[in-house]
Amino acid sequence: MTDAERRRLWRNYVDAYWRAHGAWEAAGRPMPRPPMPTQPEAVLGLQCGATTRAGTPCKLTGLYKSGRCKLHGGMSTGPKTDAGREQSRINGAKGGRPRNPTP
After folding, report:
1. Alpha helices, DSSP H, located in the chain
2. Cα-based angle 95, 98, 101 (whole degrees, multiple of 5)
3. Contact at 8 Å (CB) between 63 and 6?
4. Which residue, 68, 70, 87, is CA-closest to 79?
5. 55 conformational bin, left if phi > 0, alpha if psi -120 to 50, beta if neither
6. What are 16-40's pLDDT values in tens digits?
7. By three-state DSSP, how is residue 83 classified?
8. What is the model's pTM?
9. Contact 88, 79 (CB under 8 A)
10. What is the separation of C-alpha 26 from the centre of its chain, rounded to a whole number of angstroms?
11. 79 secondary structure, DSSP code
């Protein structure tokens, strides 16, 4: 099984899990909790696989839905709309906390 197929299985499992969890919460969290989807054998121990700065693959196994770890999940791409860019420009012009507050 290729890595891409394993990652697709992982995403499908995570989607199914959160759908079941959302339905349980929407029902008011009745006890006992309903059975949740089981993780497929093929994705057990799936590693992040992102390339580190040293050029080696990341070995972390705690993955998000994207199939990447908390360190390689991806950074924000910034505002996409003109309104968002304008708000970002305004926020950047405000400046940060003063370095030497006046008494």
Report:
1. 3-26, 82-94
2. 155
3. no
4. 87
5. left
6. 999 999 999 999 999 998 899 998 8
7. helix
8. 0.62
9. yes
10. 23
11. -
